[in-house]
Design a protein that fits this description.
CATH class: Alpha Beta
Number of helices: 12
Number of domains: 1
CATH topology: TIM Barrel
Structural class: alpha/beta
Strand order of the largest sheet: 1-2-3-4-5-6-7-8
Order of helices and strands: HEHEHHEHEHEHEHEHEHHH
Strand content: 15-25%
Bound molecules: zinc ion
Distance between the termini: 10 Å
């Protein structure tokens, strides 16, 4: 069942758990993610990088995501990840997205607020909600993590933009970590309190120790992104299959194992964030 961002966030808030948001890249990753969600009876988010929406991939991939979501026995939100501008957010709406992230975190504070609010107002017309970002979440290649989100800024940002959820910088980064990150759980609690319990989003979930993830969910993280590890699950399996002397040549049959590998990975994350059995 295709649902909007507000729908899945409400489920998470009421149940005190977190919605896993899985990045998808092609039909096979979509299939793996949906199989995991249905098997675990979990509400999920399937999200797409803005780059795919700008290239022709988004044109082909969006109908696949929508078909999967509409057929699914569990609630699925189709979300744009890290939309940098109104080009990507508007195009994603046209492609049928039911959740939009506007990432204005590299802009000056007031400009981030203004742009995010504009996207929130546009999305309202089609009953789609918006994820904002405050405090830049960098990549694991950066030497130092960027500025953490403060509770005061978060309060002002949420009040003025009307976002449904907020991505915060609390110790994670995008990519693969060289050493396990330490999350600032007290900061998560403080931001929740200051923002009247706004749903918080953790990016860079791949590679964060399980105990840290559980603590973050308990403190109020309601959406957690997994992107890098989906790619590794898929590609590592492809590589392994390619090295077999009797490898399958029919591409559809070849893809069956990588689809299963994605499914198996997603099942571990669904359980970790407590979304299993919550659909
Ligand atoms: Zn991210």
């Amino acid at each position: 069942m295709l649902v909007n961002l507000k729908y899945v966030l409400n489920l998470a808030e009421k149940g005190g758990f977190c919605i896993p948001a899985f990045n998808v890249y092609n039909m096979e990753t979509v299939m793996g993610v949906i199989k995991a969600a249905e098997e675990m009876k979990a509400p999920i988010i399937m999200q797409v990088y803005p780059r795919l929406m700008k290239e022709e991939t988004g044109y082909y991939l969006s109908p696949i995501i929508l078909a999967a979501a509409e057929k699914a026995t569990v609630p699925v939100c189709f979300h744009l990840d890290h939309g940098p501008s109104e080009l990507e957010t508007t195009r994603s709406l046209r492609y049928g997205a039911t959740g939009i992230m506007l990432d204005g975190s590299t802009l000056p504070f007031e400009e981030n607020i203004a742009l995010t609010k504009r996207v929130v107002d546009t999305c309202k017309f089609v009953d789609v909600q918006v994820e904002g970002e405050l405090g830049h979440i960098g990549t694991t290649k950066d030497d130092e993590l960027d500025e953490f989100t403060t509770a005061d800024d978060a309060k002002k940002f949420v009040e003025e933009t009307g976002v449904a959820c907020l991505a915060v910088a609390v110790g994670t980064a995008h990519g693969r970590y060289k050493k396990p990150p330490k999350l600032d759980i007290e900061r998560i609690k403080a931001i929740r309190e200051a923002t009247n319990n706004t749903a918080l989003v953790l990016h860079g979930g791949s590679g964060v120790p399980d105990e840290e993830i559980k603590a973050a969910v308990k403190a109020g993280v309601r959406k957690m992104n997994f992107a890098t590890d989906i790619c590794y699950a898929f590609l590592d399996c492809c590589l392994e299959e390619l090295q077999k002397p009797e490898r399958t040549v029919a591409v559809d049959n070849f893809m069956k194992k990588p689809i299963e590998a994605v499914k198996d990975f997603c099942i571990t994350r669904i359980k970790l964030v407590g979304a299993d059995g919550k659909a």
